Structures are given as structure tokens and as C-alpha cells.
Amino acid sequence: MKFLQPFMIISMLFAFGNCAELFSSKDKDNNEDLILAALLAGPGCGPTAVSGSAGNGTKYNFAGCTGDANVVLNGFGFTVNGVSFNAGIQGTSNSSTIVTNASSLSETGNESKAGIEVVYVMNQAGSSIDAMIQTTTSLAGPGVRLSPTSAQWLNATNAFAFGTKAGSPWASSVSVEKTVCLEVHNESGDAHIFGWSLPCNQVDRSNYEFEEDGATISDFSGNRVGLRINNAVIKSITIYSSVIGAVGSFR
């Protein structure tokens, strides 16, 4: 079926060209970015709408991506630094980052919320991924640091053990694909950070595996999602447009 891909892309270009008058300048720029990303990427690469027991969202598949990571990921709505494609997004240090270009909240306002699912593989025992949720463009804010066997909550780059509910270590994710589901709520200015070492559609939404309630965050002004990728590969990230967690401070 690969021979159909050039025909499909040409058809997309023709369709968008004929319908250009229907889009604003910003919409046209976004569509052109997506088309360019489609031209440069491969099968199994890009965004798709998803729905399930955890709610609705957009899944960004990276396992099939090839070409210039900066160009392709920018077309998908991310700003990136120091990453490449290697069966996913390969990062080599804490300077290897991706962050969304637009708000990624599932609920806005003073009690904002954001949730994600990350599928990844750690390259070595010292690998880590900082999943920053409700973060700024410079990756300040709350998040979760993932190691090969456990998670800690984050205030920017400062990591702490989960205290409300510690959770248990899981089997090593070195050279093994792992999926986690993570969410952050802004509750009266403090962060409620929690998650599960499972795909979001498989979790008990009222029973968190690890949790920190009332975390003090130095800068809680962000509305993006971002990752620091230290010697790891990101296979996919799903950004949810609906709230996952079913318990907490809902006001």
C-alpha cells in the first residue's frame, strides 16, 4: 500500500489548495505545517483522535517517524531541542526536549487540569523522562519524573518521592516498552499530581497508583505539555481533552 502514499498526499495538497479561501491565515499555516509533516514523515507517524474509558484525546504516534525531527514535530505542533527519530523520539540528555506549541489543558480556569499517556523505552539504567504537565514553554511547573522502575513528582527540575500514595516499583523499562498515565490538577494554587503505570484506558480512575496532593509549585502558570528525554525513546504521547482522574478536590 506504500505506492498509495504519494497519491494521497497529492490529493491532500489539491484539496487544501482548492479550499484555501475557507481558512484564515493562521488555519492555512497550520494546515500547511501538517501537510509538510506528512510529506516528510512515514507511516505510523502523526496525530490521531482517540476515545475510550479514559475519555477523548489526541494520540501522537512517533514510532514510524523519519526525517528531520525538528521539521516534522514542528508540523505536529511541538517545539523541540536535541532530539532525533529512532523508532520514536530519541533523546540523549536532559537538554533533549519537546513541548506543545499551544494550550494542552483538559479543563481551563483557576482549577485547570491536564492529563497524558506516554509510551516509552528507557535505553539504560540511568535513563529518565520528565513528563511536565501544565508547564511553561521553558518546562517550569509540575510533572512526573520516570525512571526505569518508578516515578517521582516534580517541581520544575526538583524531584520528590510521592507522599500521599507512594506506589510500588514496576518491572524495568530498560529495552522494554512501558506505558504510564499521568494527570495534574490545579487545586487552589497547589498541584494534585497522580498517575498509574498502565495505559489510561486500563486504570481505575478513582484509585491512583501514586499520588501527591497539595504539592507546592514554584511556577504554576503554564498550560503546555512537555518532555525531557534523557537516554530514552518516546513511542507516543496522548494528550487528553477530558479529565481522567475521578477523585480529588473538585470545586
TrEMBL record:
Key words, A-Z: Signal
Q: Which residues form the signal peptide?
A: 1-20
What is this protein's name? Lipoprotein
